[in-house]
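Input structure tokens:
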């Protein structure tokens, strides 16, 4: 019985206290996943904001229906016109509809004291994201105003400039934080695995002394590390999904930022990152102990 108990306690090559390793990798991957989710939602939010950037194209008052239809065809054929589901994002607002909206918002009917409707028929044209900077929008404005029957083109220039500046600043900050976070996570996982393998250093040396090749010694460690990395990735992905569902239930508006394809890619990335980081951190740690002298092992 004593021999059996001793054999059970006997260390096997490649075995180490993996619970702390899996926990550390899972925690690190969860942090990366949360940050990745923040980046995805930020990008989606910026896309939604840019989708609402549009030009107001006001038409001449004496324009005919045929001229108006021709202007719509001309605007729809432009490269800068935004498309969604193969349809150009353009809408027509008559001066009567504009007057009704104005009365609803202000409660005042200007026709009572002006005697006529001073508003104009207009088109709202959404612009593709690649054309959404001040220089290009100014050029587009001039291009549309040159169309026969167009009175004036307006857009909120200050809002566009502010959106572009804020998006650029946020993107740079997120990239900087992502790089720092990735370095911290790699160092954390690397140190955790190195400490976990510390208990195996004499067994590694014993295998060397009996003539075992480095590849033979590394194989069980690398196999377990890859498996533990995958397990950590699965647990981190499941935890991230649970947190997402909780956040969406508490703040339903966030569901507008949900992109299932990109979320699946994020989960797959976590699995891949867990396996790769676990593999190479373990490889580095094992190689370190293989190169150590006997005195350095103590």
């Amino acid at each position: 019985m004593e021999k059996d108990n001793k054999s059970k306690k006997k260390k096997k090559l490649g075995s180490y206290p993996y619970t702390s390793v899996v926990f550390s990798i899972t925690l690190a991957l969860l942090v990366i996943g949360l940050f990745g989710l923040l980046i995805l939602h930020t990008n989606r939010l910026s896309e939604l904001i840019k989708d609402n950037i549009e030009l107001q194209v006001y038409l001449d008052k004496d324009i005919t229906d045929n001229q108006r239809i021709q202007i719509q065809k001309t605007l729809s054929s432009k490269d800068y016109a935004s498309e969604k589901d193969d349809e150009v994002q353009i809408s027509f607002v008559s001066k009567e509809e504009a007057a009704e909206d104005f009365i609803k918002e202000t409660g005042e009917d200007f026709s009572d004291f002006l005697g006529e409707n001073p508003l104009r028929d207009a088109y709202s044209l959404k612009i593709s994201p690649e054309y959404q900077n001040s220089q290009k929008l100014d050029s587009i404005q001039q291009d549309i105003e040159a169309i026969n029957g167009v009175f004036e083109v307006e857009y909120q220039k200050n809002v566009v400039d502010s959106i572009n500046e804020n998006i650029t600043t946020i993107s740079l900050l997120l990239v900087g934080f992502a790089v720092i976070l990735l370095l911290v996570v790699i160092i954390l996982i690397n140190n955790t695995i190195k400490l976990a393998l510390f208990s195996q250093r004499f067994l590694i040396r014993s295998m060397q002394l009996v003539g075992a090749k480095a590849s033979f010694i590394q194989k069980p460690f690398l196999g377990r590390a890859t498996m533990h990395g995958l397990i950590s990735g699965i647990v981190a992905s499941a935890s991230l999904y649970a947190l997402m569902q909780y956040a969406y239930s508490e703040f339903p508006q966030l569901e507008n930022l949900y992109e299932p394809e990109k979320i699946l890619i994020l989960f797959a990335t976590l699995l891949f990152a867990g396996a790769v980081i676990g593999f190479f951190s373990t490889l580095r740690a094992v190689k370190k102990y293989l190169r150590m002298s006997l005195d350095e092992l103590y």
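The chain is about 70% helix and 10% strand. Residues 1-11 have pLDDT under 50 and may be disordered.
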